[in-house]
Amino acid sequence: MKKMIILLFLAPAYLIAQQKATDIKNVIVITTDGLRWQEVFKGMDAALANDGRFNQGRRDSIEIYENYWAEDPAGRRKKLMPFFWNTIAAKGQLYGNREKNNKVNVANPYWFSYPGYNEIFTGYPDPAVNSNEYQANPHVTVLEYINNLPAFKGKVAAFGAWGAFNRILNEERAGFPVIAAFDTTGGKNPTTKELLINAMLKDSYKPFGYGECLDVFTHYGAMEHLETRKPKVLYIAYGETDEWAHAGRYKDYLDAAKNLDKWISDIWNYVQRTPAYKDKTALLITCDHGRGDAKKEQWTSHGSRIAGADEIWFAVMGPGIPAKGEVSKDMQLYQKQFAQTIASLLGLTYKAEHPIADAIKEIKN
C-alpha cells in the first residue's frame, strides 16, 4: 500500500517533467564567427586592450576600459555580455570555460569557418571539407532534414552575414531560404521593412567587400522574418567578431560581441512576449572556431597552426532545459554533437547518409 501511495504521488511530477521535456516546438540557432571563449567567460583581455597594435589610437584603449573593465573576470564578462550573464546564466546553460575543465572543441582538423559550420549542421567533421571556397555542401544538414519533414516544411530559414552560407547549407538543394551577405530578403512578397532593409543593404558601407555584410542587416532581416513569417527553425549567423579580429581591431571586436549580446536579448524578449513562441522555443548559441591566445598576438588568427583555435563554447536555453548556469563539470564535448542536439531539442532524430555524432545528453539531464 505504501509503495502504491508513493507511486501515485510521484506520477504527476514525472508527467510534468515529461511534458516540460517536450515543450520545445521551435529552435533558434545563433552563431557568431570566431568569438573566443576567453571573452565569453572572462570578458575583455587587458593585454590586448593595452597593446597599440590592436587599437586604432589611444582613444580606443580608453573606451575599452570605460565600457568593459571591471576588477574581476565575472564583472568584466557581465559588462561585455550582460544578457549572457544575467539571463542565460540564470535560466539556461553555458559550456566551454576551460579554466573549470569544461571543454568544448571542434572535431574537424582545420579550425576555420566552412569546416566548422559543416560540422555544426551535419554532425560530421568531414576531412574533405577543407576550404572556405568548398563547393555546395554534398551532405544533408540537420536544417535540410528538418525542412523535409511535413510538420516543418516551409518553416525553416537561415540568415547569414557571410556569403558562403548559400554553399554551406546548399540552398539550391535544401529548399528553404538562405539569405546570405547581400542577398535580398522577403522573397517575391517583401514587407515594407524588408524593402527598406534591401535598399539600405545595397547602399551600405561594405568594409568586408561583397563577400560579407555588416551584422546589423543580417539581424534585422532575420527579426523581420521571425516576426512576420513565424518559422519553427531559424538560423542566424553573425560575422563581425571574426572580421574585426582578423583586422586586429580589438575595440571593434568587443563592440561586435556586445551588439551580439543585445540582439540575442531582443530575440529572446520577442520570443517570450509572442504567443506562438513563448515557453515553446529554445536558443542554441555557439561559434565555428576559436582563436589564438597562448601567444597574444595570435588572437587575430585561427587555423590548425594556431594553438587553441579549436577551442569553442556554447549556450542553450529553453523550456525543459535545466537552469544549470555556467557548467563547471569536468567534461569534453564536441562541435559535431550540435546537429543531433538541435534535432533532439525538437524531439527528432536527425538521419543522413553520413556519420552523425550523438546529441549532448548533458543538456537535458
Comma- or semicolon-separated keywords:
three-stranded mixed beta sheet, disordered N terminus, eight-stranded mixed beta sheet, 41% helix, Alkaline Phosphatase, subunit A, alpha/beta, 365 residues
Protein architecture, described:
- The protein is α/β, with parallel strands linked by helices and 365 residues long.
- The protein has a single domain (2-363), classed as Alkaline Phosphatase, subunit A (3-Layer(aba) Sandwich).
- 41% of the residues lie in helices and 13% in strands.
- The protein contains 15 helices and eleven strands.
- Helix 13 (240-246) runs antiparallel to helix 14 (250-273).
- The protein is globular and about 55 Å long.
Low-confidence stretches: 1-19
- CATH topology (level 3) name: Alkaline Phosphatase, subunit A
Order of helices and strands: HEHHHHHEEHHEHHEHHEHHEEEEEH
Structural class: alpha/beta
Strand content: 5-15%
Biggest sheet, spatial arrangement of strands: 5-4-6-1-7-9-2-10
Q: What's the architecture in CATH terms?
A: 3-Layer(aba) Sandwich
For the largest beta-sheet, the strand count, sense and barrel status come to: 8 strands, mixed
CATH superfamily: Alkaline Phosphatase, subunit A
